[in-house]
Specification:
It is a single chain. This protein is mostly beta strands and 64 residues long. The chain has one domain: Roll (SH3 type barrels), CATH 2.30.30.40. It is 0% helix and 42% strand. The strands form 2 sheets. It has a 3-stranded antiparallel β-sheet, with no helix packed on it. A hairpin with an 8-residue loop joins β1 and β2. The protein is globular.
Amino acid sequence: MLAERLNVRSGPGVRQAVVGQVVRGTRLVILGNAAGWWYVQLPDGETGWVMAAFTTPLAQPANG
């Protein structure tokens, strides 16, 4: 079963504080990574960490 919401954390780990949540389908900008976690920018400009296993990358647009 897929979750409808994903926790955004203050650091890369489940013991880090939850600083927000995003709903399924929200597009995030990846700014960095650390061992199974993405450091992301949310649509409102805030940043935080999400577990990579619960994300799906979008295809890159074609050049040309």
